[in-house]
């Protein structure tokens, strides 16, 4: 009788995208469980790879030639049944590899590192032993890989059977430990030791009584020293006498659990809800109590108290002994929002964001997995947090495109939230001041339940918005980032000791070098895109591939010295502002000033403490911030995103303007907003000015219907890339043919066309966009296309399929 296991191996190719059957050796039979990591031989047998157990059969009579599992890497499953099922669904629906989907759900540390080593198995000549192997009997192949001479020597030795290539799988998932103290004697024995002590051995006596108080426990030495008041030396004596042992104890690398929260008493209690909030909370509570997997769309204007609704719903789930998951966009995952949740729920909260080190993330993940954390706040990938018994799932700012992952697996957190809501019988709350058209349309159809918060807290008015046409400004005064109105208002705030926020819209925007004589624009040698000037490093950088070069002094095309810098970066705006209002204190927030860990929080804290008058920043300041003293918001360039070749560009502009306007006048001081633009008549700007989401929704829906775009149609993008442009184009022509032959006539197929940024990282990109309402043959056709194009021999053409793409650039 042999037990068999189905394993997904860590070899992401189309051929290996299904479970392989392995034999479970008898010694592992009692231990192995679904969801554990294993090491298995793969291919020619020498190679060892990591894999995941996705199925276990009852022991059957089997005596074929199946390979056996080499080792188990876990004592407990690292992926539970719910998430395992989800991983399969995810792979199918996003056209991704199953193993990539599993890894997406797990902390990086659980991805074992495979190294190729060369091992000496027979005597080799002295030169090889010393020069290549440095006297050892094995060698990490990666260290010599780039030296063709050494490689060819090793290959020769392999032929002579003197060395062997092996794969070693090393588990990186090491919990962090510290020194712990553990009594080695029982109470009586310690008592005995005490009576035989010298009468002046006070410290030792105290140690013995302390040990008696922790029998059967392990205590961190630092804690033991603190509690007992004894020195490290005394504990060492205890070790020598055999009273105690020093053993490793696990500690969490969780940065915030030790850190004390600011003492902000009134925030720690639930606020008294206003009527609108109460209605929303009641509806959500009902669904939590009844374990209904309903989807709510909580549409509330900025400052209407959506966050308080989330917090009270989370409290309800916890009261029912369930857990809660709250997602916020990475960019607004600031201490402000995290602290609001932590003040309410304390150490039950785990936080997952991209600023954590791999170790910290692994430890937060384990706190969740062990049920120690019941509330998770995090960015996109936190949707896979291993919480059990979910009682509620919340997506704040549900319209944010960053909830869609733009690399494989190309999932949208909203879809995963709905899947997990169903699987846990828990409601999902999608919150936004400006819901995505897709969600709002579903709410209108009754698929989602709409909950409205129409007013700001205490009926405070939304700030009035003034639109300033920059065209006459520039004509009269020359190039400037600041209109007279905006300057006057900024100065006025300074006098009144109030604060302002300035947004520089960076979407679709860059600061480039152009020659005034010949018009040459400095472009990246690898990508079809202009290089961006970075004043801090004094270089030109490509934002796609990372290429970097010095700022040129002469035009590389015609040699002219008239090469100038165009466009506006935050640094340049800051310089101009310093000149125009010299006594204003400015904090600049952009990718450059927030790159260092903790800077984001630090700058926001400084602004919150009024150490600056003006917060100047990019999109990262537009969302979720709540500063009571901010009474003026200025948008320097509202329209840079409007010209992009993307059907969502108006929606994004409207969202951004509404969000950032909402930062003004949130407390008792009245706020106002100035929007500078070259397109004052564009409907997205006009309707944002009027705070009229409803009218924007109607007008945008009409346009989408006319052009057959979402939410009327679903879209899928297929992309092929190759270093040779004609190969990419030819692949796409073939794919197009296959689509036309197989899909329903009602489905619209656009392209193939070169992508808007046609060349990136030395590869040419072609795309096809499919628009469909319902097409039963679509899924299987796409799966087949993927199979065909990814099969061996054609690996140099990369084909990807992106369901519901958020960008078409
Ligand atoms: N019921 C309430 N009573 C008093 N104050 C409240 C109440 N609900 C929320 N607040 C306060 O009102 C302010 C705005 O609320 P909150 O930040 O939750 O709004 P929001 O809708 O999430 O805002 P945004 O979408 O603009 O980020 C906060 O300072 C919050 O503490
Ligand atoms: Zn030139
Ligand atoms: Zn580049």
From TrEMBL:
Q: How is the cofactor bound?
A: Binds 2 zinc ions per subunit.
Q: Which parts of the sequence belong to the Helicase ATP-binding domain?
A: 287-453
Residues reported in the UniProt entry to bind Zn(2+) 1: 515, 518, 555, 558
Q: Which domain of life is it from?
A: Bacteria
Task: Read off the SUPFAM superfamilies from this record.
Answer: P-loop containing nucleoside triphosphate hydrolases
The record, for Pfam families, names: DEAD (PF00270), Helicase_C (PF00271), PriA_3primeBD (PF17764), PriA_C (PF18074), Zn_ribbon_PriA (PF18319)
EC number, UniProt record: 5.6.2.4
* Alphabetically ordered keywords of this record: ATP-binding, DNA replication, DNA-binding, Helicase, Hydrolase, Isomerase, Metal-binding, Nucleotide-binding, Primosome, Zinc
Q: Where does Zn(2+) 2 bind?
A: 524, 527, 542, 545
Q: What class of enzyme is it?
A: isomerase
What is the protein's known function?
Initiates the restart of stalled replication forks, which reloads the replicative helicase on sites other than the origin of replication. Recognizes and binds to abandoned replication forks and remodels them to uncover a helicase loading site. Promotes assembly of the primosome at these replication forks.
* Subunit (UniProt): Component of the replication restart primosome.
Its family remark reads: Belongs to the helicase family. PriA subfamily.
Query: What's the protein here called?
Result: Replication restart protein PriA
């Amino acid at each position: 009788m042999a037990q068999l296991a189905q394993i997904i191996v860590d070899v992401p190719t189309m051929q290996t995208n299904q479970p392989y059957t392995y034999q479970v050796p008898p010694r592992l039979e009692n231990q192995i469980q679904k969801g554990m990591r294993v090491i298995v031989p793969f291919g020619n047998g020498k190679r060892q790879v990591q894999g995941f157990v996705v199925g276990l059969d009852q022991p059957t009579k089997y005596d074929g030639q199946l390979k056996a599992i080499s080792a188990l890497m876990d004592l407990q499953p690292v992926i539970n049944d719910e998430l395992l099922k989800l991983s399969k669904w995810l792979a199918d629906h996003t056209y991704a590899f199953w193993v990539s989907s599993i890894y997406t759900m797990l902390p990086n540390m659980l991805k074992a590192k495979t190294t190729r080593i060369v091992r000496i198995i027979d005597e080799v000549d002295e030169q090889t032993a010393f020069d290549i192997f440095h006297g050892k009997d094995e060698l990490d192949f990666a260290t010599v890989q780039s030296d063709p001479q050494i490689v060819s020597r090793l290959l020769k030795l392999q032929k002579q059977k003197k060395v062997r290539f092996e794969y070693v799988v090393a588990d990186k998932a090491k919990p962090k430990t510290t020194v712990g103290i553990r009594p080695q004697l029982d109470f009586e024995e310690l008592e005995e030791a005490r009576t035989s002590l010298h009468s002046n051995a006070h410290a030792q006596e105290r140690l013995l009584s302390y040990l008696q108080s922790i029998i059967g426990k392990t205590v961190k030495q630092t804690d033991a020293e603190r509690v007992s008041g004894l020195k490290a030396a005394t504990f060492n004596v205890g070790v020598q006498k055999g009273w105690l042992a020093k053993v490793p104890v696990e500690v969490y690398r969780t940065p915030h659990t030790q850190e004390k929260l600011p003492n902000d008493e009134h925030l720690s209690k639930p606020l008294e809800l206003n009527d609108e909030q109460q209605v929303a909370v009641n509806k959500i509570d009902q669904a939590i109590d009844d374990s209904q997997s309903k989807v709510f769309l909580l549409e509330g204007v900025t400052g209407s108290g959506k966050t308080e609704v989330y917090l009270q719903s989370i409290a309800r789930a916890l009261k029912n002994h369930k857990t809660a998951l709250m997602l916020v966009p990475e960019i607004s995952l600031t201490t402000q929002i995290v602290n609001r949740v932590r003040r309410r729920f304390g150490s039950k909260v785990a936080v997952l964001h991209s600023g954590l080190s791999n170790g910290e993330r692994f430890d937060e993940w384990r706190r969740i997995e062990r049920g120690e954390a019941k509330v998770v706040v995090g960015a996109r990938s936190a949707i896979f947090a291993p919480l059990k018994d979910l009682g509620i799932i919340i997506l704040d700012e549900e319209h944010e495109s960053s909830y869609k992952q733009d690399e494989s697996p190309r999932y949208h957190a909203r879809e995963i939230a709905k899947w997990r809501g169903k699987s846990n019988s828990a409601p999902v709350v999608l919150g936004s001041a400006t819901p995505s058209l897709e969600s709002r349309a579903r709410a209108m159809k009754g698929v989602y339940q709409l909950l409205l918060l129409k007013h700001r807290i205490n009926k405070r008015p939304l700030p009035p918005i003034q639109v300033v046409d920059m065209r006459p400004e520039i004509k009269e005064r020359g190039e400037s980032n600041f209109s007279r109105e905006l300057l006057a208002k900024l100065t006025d705030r300074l006098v009144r000791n109030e604060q302002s926020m300035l947004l520089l819209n960076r979407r679709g925007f860059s600061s480039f070098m152009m020659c005034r004589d010949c018009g040459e624009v400095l472009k990246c040698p690898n990508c079809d895109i202009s290089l961006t000037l970075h004043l801090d490093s004094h270089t030109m950088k490509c934002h796609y591939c990372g290429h970097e070069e010095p700022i040129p002094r002469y035009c590389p095309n015609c040699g002219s010295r008239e090469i100038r810098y165009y466009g506006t970066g935050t640094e340049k705006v800051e310089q101009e502002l310093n000149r125009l209002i010299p006594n204003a204190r400015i904090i600049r927030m952009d990718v450059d000033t927030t790159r260092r860990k903790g800077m984001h929080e630090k700058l926001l804290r400084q602004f919150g403490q009024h150490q600056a008058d003006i917060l100047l920043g990019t999109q990262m300041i537009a969302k979720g911030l709540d500063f009571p003293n901010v009474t003026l918001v200025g948008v320097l360039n509202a329209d840079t995103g409007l010209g992009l070749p993307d059907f969502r560009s108006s929606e994004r502009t409207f969202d951004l303007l509404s969000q950032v306007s909402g930062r003004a006048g949130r407390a008792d001081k009245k706020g106002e907003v100035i929007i500078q633009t070259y397109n004052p008549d564009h409907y997205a700007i006009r309707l944002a000015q009027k705070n009229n989401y409803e009218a924007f929704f109607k007008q945008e829906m009409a346009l989408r219907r006319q052009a057959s775009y979402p939410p009327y149609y679903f879209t899928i993008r297929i992309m092929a890339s190759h270093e040779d442009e004609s190969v990419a184009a030819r692949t796409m022509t073939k794919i197009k043919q296959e689509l036309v032959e197989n899909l329903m006539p009602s489905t619209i197929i656009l392209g193939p066309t070169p992508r808007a940024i046609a060349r990136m990282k030395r590869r040419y990109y072609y795309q096809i966009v499919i628009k469909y309402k319902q097409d039963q043959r679509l899924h299987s056709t796409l799966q087949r296309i993927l199979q065909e194009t990814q099969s061996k021999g054609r690996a140099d053409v990369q084909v990807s399929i992106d369901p519901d793409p958020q960008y078409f650039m």
